[in-house]
Design a protein that fits this description.
The chain has 2 domains: about 10-95 and about 185-215, Periplasmic binding protein-like II (D-Maltodextrin-Binding Protein, domain 2, 3-Layer(aba) Sandwich); about 95-180, D-Maltodextrin-Binding Protein, domain 2 (3-Layer(aba) Sandwich), CATH 3.40.190. It is elongated, with a radius of gyration of 20 Å. By secondary structure, the chain is α/β, with parallel strands linked by helices. Helix content is about 25%, strand content about 30%. The strands form 2 sheets. Strands 2-3-1-4-11-5 form a 6-stranded mixed β-sheet. A hairpin with a 5-residue loop joins strand 2 and strand 3. The chain has helices spanning about 20-30, 60-65, 75-80, 125-135, 165-170, 195-215; strands spanning about 10-15, 40-45, 50-55, 70-75, 85-90, 95-105, 120, 140, 160-165, 175-185, 185-190. It is built from 6 helices and 11 strands. The termini are far apart. It binds adenosine-5'-triphosphate and zinc ion. The site of zinc ion has 3 residues, from loops.
Length: about 220
């Protein structure tokens, strides 16, 4: 049953690259919160909305399960999770790409040279798909972080990792050879049924984001 008395719950990354931009966007469209760094669940001061602050990796699942109605999260995370959610819109921040990189002075020159080799990544689903589509067989080594160090440790021959400026790759003697996936922050919505009140609030939020984007262009 639909519970019209509960607040629209929005998942936001607790602490990371998307946090400040997302909270600024919410403030920018007139949703006010106080003390959001202190607690996990934060009530909006002027609308029937609350924020759940969690790790970005957990956001697609929380939205898929309907624990949260909306979420602000990277397209990379949504795609990797293969989450059953509705993407409402891209937001133009948190822009990055998932790309293949290899040691600058190594034996491999292109992705074909990685056939039969080891690739370290935090994105095994998207990475496996990329190589399969090319008919290449690679051994995927899943690491939760610091993927860029894997070639130097001889754990892997190449990596598939998020890149924005390329500074991290360069600092680790790696060169980008191919892009797998373009990403930006997305606003996602649960596919679970929502009360009229929540649907109305979501329409309001979308309209305001639209207006906010236009004003800031
Ligand atoms: P959490 O503790 O929430 O799991 P995290 O360390 O996994 O955080 P961040 O590094 O804060 O995540 O990145 C969050 C998102 O920011 C990424 O999933 C991606 O969508 C986006 N992003 C933009 N540029 C980059 C980049 N250069 N490297 C990594 N992520 C980036
Ligand atoms: Zn994460």
């Amino acid at each position: 049953t639909l519970d019209s008395t509960t607040s629209l719950r929005i998942a936001v990354q607790k602490s990371g690259r998307l946090t400040d931009k997302t909270l600024n966007l919410l403030e920018g469209i007139g949703l006010h919160f106080d003390d959001y760094k202190r607690s996990l669940l934060v009530k909006c001061l002027n609308f029937d909305v609350e924020l759940l602050l969690i790790r970005d990796d957990d956001i697609p699942e929380y939205v898929e399960d309907g624990v949260c109605d909306l979420g602000f999260v990277g397209a990379n995370t949504v795609a990797e999770d293969e989450a059953d959610v509705t993407i409402l819109r891209g937001l133009g921040y948190g822009v990055c790409r998932l790309a293949i990189a290899i040691p600058k002075n190594g034996s491999a020159q292109n992705v074909e040279d990685l056939d039969g080799k080891k690739i370290a990544t935090s994105y095994p689903v998207l990475t496996r798909k990329f190589f399969e589509d090319k008919g290449l067989n690679v051994d995927i080594i899943t690491l939760s972080g610091s993927v860029e160090i894997a070639p130097r440790l001889e754990i892997a021959d190449g990596i598939s990792d998020l890149v924005s400026t390329g500074g991290t790759l360069k600092a680790n003697g790696l060169v980008e050879i191919e892009k797998i996936f373009d990403s930006e922050t997305q606003l996602i919505q649960t596919n679970k049924p929502l009360s009229e009140g929540k649907q109305k609030m979501i329409r309001k939020i979308l309209q305001r984001i639209e207006g906010h984007k236009k004003a800031s262009q």
